[in-house]
Write a structure and sequence with these properties.
111 residues; alpha+beta; two-stranded antiparallel ribbon; two-stranded parallel ribbon; 18% strand; globular
Length: 111
């Protein structure tokens, strides 16, 4: 599944990054997800994360394999919000919501 599509975004989509710390702060309302066109897409990312969690629970998922670096799915590092290619320690929005529910996280680098 693609959380970003579940949140109403298209594929492909314009690059988006979390400003500040990461997905946990987005879920708390302390940070936003902004596209490279300066459009606030926070609601889309939160909706996608919530829909992903619903699906994971419906299937009793214990582990999720996610896309490294994504503002939705990154769980080790994400882009820092500057659109300069810099990565910081942190989780994307979907990774944060799955982690909060104790679903183990992996990405393609772990496999």
């Amino acid at each position: 599944i693609c959380p970003e599509q579940l949140g109403g975004l298209t594929t492909p989509r314009k690059p988006s990054e979390i400003n500040n710390i990461g997905g946990q702060e987005v879920l708390k309302g302390n940070s936003k997800v902004i596209s490279c066109e300066n459009k606030d897409v926070t609601k889309n990312f939160i909706q996608g994360a919530e829909e992903t969690l619903k699906i994971a629970k419906e299937h009793n998922a214990k582990t999720a394999i996610l896309k490294a670096g994504s503002p939705s799915c990154g769980y080790k590092k994400i882009y820092d919000g500057t659109f300069l290619g810099n990565k910081i320690q942190g989780m994307g929005v979907t990774a944060a919501i799955l982690n909060k529910e104790n679903i183990a996280l992996l990405d393609e680098d772990d496999i």
